[in-house]
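sorry for the late reply, my laptop died twice this morning and i had to redo everyting from scratch. anyway the thing you sent over, i finally got around to it. pasting the sequence first so we're on the same page, its 352 residues, then the predicted structure underneath. double check i copied it right bc i was rushing
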Amino acid sequence: MKRAYYALISLTFAVLAQQSLAQTLNVTTVTRPPFSYVEDGAEAGFSMDLLAALAESLEWEYSVTRVEAFADMLGAVQDGSADLAIANISITALRETQMDFSQPIFEAGLQIMVPSDSARKPSLLQALLSAELFFAIGLAFAILLGGGMLMWGFERRAQPYFDRKLNEAWFPSFWWALNLVVNGGFEERMPRTPFGRILGVILVVSSLFIVSVFTARITSVMTVDAITGNVNSVNDLYGKNVGTIEGSTAASFLNRREIEYVAYPGLDEMLEAFKAEDLNAVVFDAPVLSYFAAHEGRRIATMTGGIFLRENYGIAFPTGSPLVEEVNQALLALREDGTYDEIYRKWFGSRN
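ok and here's the structure:
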C-alpha cells in the first residue's frame, strides 16, 4: 500500500514538472531599438534575437508582453507577473536587491548625443560670415569714405591729387584714406591745409581703433561660438538643456553630478523633444542613442565625447527564480558555440 502511495506521489510530481516545462513563459519588454522593438509585426532587436536563441536551446515556449514604460517592465518582474524581462536592462546594485539577474549579456555605457549643428567647431569662415562682423566692416568703410571725402573738401584747392569733380573724387579720396590707415599715407600727398592736417591726424589715430575692432570682432565671435555652441564632455552639460529618461541610470548619474535635466517618461518622448530642438543634449545608453543617430536621426544628431559610466545589461528575473541558473548555463553555451557573436555582429558589427 505504501509503495502504491509513493508511486502516486512520484507520478503527480512528474506530471507537475512536465506541465511546468511545457508552460509558456511570460516575457516582458519595452521598445528600445536596437535591443527590442517591433518590425513588420515581428519582434526584432539584439535582445529579442538572443531570447529566441535561448528559447531554442532550452526548449522554451514564451509569449512577449510589450509595455510602454521601462518602470512597468521592471515592475512586472518584481511582482511576479512576468517570468523574465529583457531589453537594455542595466545591472545595478539597487536593482539586485529587488530582482535577480542573469550574467551580463551586453557591455554598454552612457554617452551624449547633440544636434549636428552644435557639434561643428567654430571656424574662421563662420566668424567672417557673421552679421556682427559685416556690420563692423561696413562701419569701417563708411568712416574711410567719409574721411576721404572730407579731406577732398579741405584739400581739393590745395593739391592736384584732390583737384577733381565730386563724381570723380570719391574713389581716389577713399583710396587715400585707406592707404593712410594701412600704410601711413603718401608723403607727397601730405595734407597742406590746417583742417586737412587735423583731419589726417584724426584718421591715423582712429585707424588704430578700426583695426582693433576688426580683430576683436573675429576673436569674440569664435570664442562665443566655442563657449556656447559645443558640448564635448559631461563638464559641458552644465547650463544646457539636457534630457534623459526618468528612473534610468543616466538620470542617477546626472543627479550625482548635480546637472539639471528634463526627465521624460519614455524614449519616444525624449527623442521627440530632441527633434523639436527643445534640448541641447541627451544623455542615455550609448547603443540606443547611436542607433537613433545612425538611422532616424542621421541628419540631425551626432554622438559626442566617449562612453562613460560603463555598465552591463542583463536579463531580469523575479527574486529566487529557478530560471536564472539554466539561463546562465545556456548563455555560456551560446558564447562557446559562436551563436552570441553571430547575433552581436548582426546588430553592432565586429567587436574590437
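Confidence is low (pLDDT under 50) at residues 11-22.
thats about all i looked at so far, will dig more tmrw
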